[in-house]
Write a structure and sequence with these properties.
Layout (H helix, E strand, L loop, with lengths): L14 H4 L1 H6 L23 E7 L1 H11 L10 E2 L3 E4 L5 E5 L2 E2 L3 E2 L11 E2 L5 E2 L2 E6 L2 E5 L12 E12 L7 E11 L9 E10 L6 E9 L11 E9 L2 E7 L12 E7 L10 E3 L4 E2 L21 E5 L2 E7 L8 E7 L13 E2 L7 E10 L6 E9 L5 H7 L7 E8 L4
């Protein structure tokens, strides 16, 4: 991120679209699985937990400044699904799922409250991308950046990285993982999972060159067992480890399960280069086997984050059970396949007053290597008045940020 933190056809949508990722992610849990594998690089590994945290008012405020600018008429004013990737020239590309565009207005809002607001007819798109330079957001790319693949389907961008255009090449591109979902009936009112794709963006102009399907799930008969990859990724030892999850919660299972794939550097856009953890080895033939989750008590939601810290994998998630929809906690492992140990110490994510919830914690390593910046998305929980709430107070649908310091649990 920058300084530097992590500067780290259009549709008119409704509040339902804005709640899609919240419903998929609010019940995040983490397992203690039995499958294991050695650290890929033999690095030392020790337990890690959240030792300290503080609200990152500067970065949170930068998104508020940009989104509240009344002079802008066709740019980002709020969104969720927050991911970021640093570009070779130092800029930071922020990727979002459901996004509100259009003009915002200074308070008071129509209800007489002192909140910046947007008109109820403001357009909403399924994805967007915003560029940050020198710590300031300055450009919203033409949205949606990734067009719908077919009627009734859409793409949500998730994790991304810069890698060689092909192995060994000096030319670089941005690879963006995409989740493809389709409209469906209950219980799939928030979308049926279909496939994982990889988009290639050119540098430095960030033009979409191609979109390739890397993991098709159409033929899996039970949609709740379909796996979408890309909620988070870790680059290590010449490989990209890509994590994903299923949608077990949509059909009433208490938790979902997590999976991991491995791809050689420079080959994310090659379906044949992907290998999936099958419980004992990386395989191209076997279907992926869950590394977190037993489908009953332990598991994950479809949005969590994994970072690498001094040889240790650290997983961030919303805490489970009675701790509600505000506490973030962490788990650690010596291997991308687990087992995951924890939970460690957590913290209560700062939230606006009222019926809001936090979800989708995502780690953003700082450019100076000192600690992590963690984002989390915020949304209104009650569907009965969500439309009025999200438009009447635009701050209710934007990411917040905290700075974390990790340390051994005894330190």
């Amino acid at each position: 991120m920058s300084e530097e933190h992590p500067e780290t056809g259009r549709r008119t949508g409704t509040w339902v679209g804005a709640l899609l990722a919240l419903v998929l992610a609010v019940a995040l849990l983490v397992a203690l699985p039995g499958d294991d594998g050695p650290p890929p690089d033999g690095a030392a590994c020790a337990d890690r937990t959240i030792a300290a945290w503080s609200a990152d008012e500067r970065l949170t405020g930068e998104f508020a400044r940009y989104g509240d600018d009344p002079a802008r008429t066709d740019d980002w004013t709020g969104g969720d699904g927050t991911h970021s990737v640093r570009l070779p020239d130092g800029r930071l590309l922020w990727l979002f799922s459901d996004t509100f565009l259009g003009r915002v207005y200074a308070p008071p809002n129509p209800a007489g409250e002192s909140h910046t607001w947007r008109d109820s007819a403001a357009p909403m798109v399924r994805n967007s991308a915003v560029v940050m330079s020198g710590g300031r957001l300055d450009t919203t790319l033409a949205a949606p950046l990734f067009p719908d693949p077919a009627p009734g389907q859409w793409r949500w961008p998730v994790a991304a990285r810069v890698e060689p255009r092909e192995p060994g090449s000096a030319r670089q591109v941005v690879r963006v993982l995409l989740w493809v979902r389709a409209s469906g009936q209950a219980p799939w009112i928030y979308g049926v999972p279909l496939a994982t794709e990889v988009a290639t963006l050119s540098l430095p102009d960030l033009r979409v060159e191609s979109v390739v399907k890397v993991f098709d799930q159409h033929l899996v008969p039970d949609p709740s067992r379909r796996v979408l990859f890309g909620t988070t990724l870790v680059e290590e030892d010449g490989y990209t480890y890509v994590y994903g999850g299923d949608d077990g919660q949509a059909v009433g299972r208490p938790v979902s399960s997590a999976y991991v794939a491995r791809v050689p550097e420079g080959r994310l856009a090659e379906p044949g280069a992907w290998r999936y953890w099958n419980g004992s080895a990386w395989s191209a033939r076997d279907g992926p086997r869950a590394v977190l989750g037993d489908g009953r008590r332990t598991g994950v939601g479809s949005a969590f984050s994994v970072a690498r810290d001094d040889g240790t994998y650290v997983l961030f998630t919303m805490a489970a059970g009675t701790e509600g929809l505000s506490k973030v906690t962490s788990y650690w492992s010596c291997s991308p396949t687990g087992p995951w140990h924890g939970p460690g110490r957590g913290f209560d994510a700062p939230l606006p007053r009222g019926g809001t919830a936090a979800y989708n914690p995502q780690a953003h390593p700082r450019a100076d290597g000192d600690g992590l910046v963690l984002s989390y998305d915020v949304n209104w929980m009650e569907p009965t008045d969500a439309a009025a709430r999200l438009n009447g107070n635009v701050a209710l649908y934007r990411p917040r940020f905290v700075t974390l310091r990790l340390a051994p649990s005894g330190g």
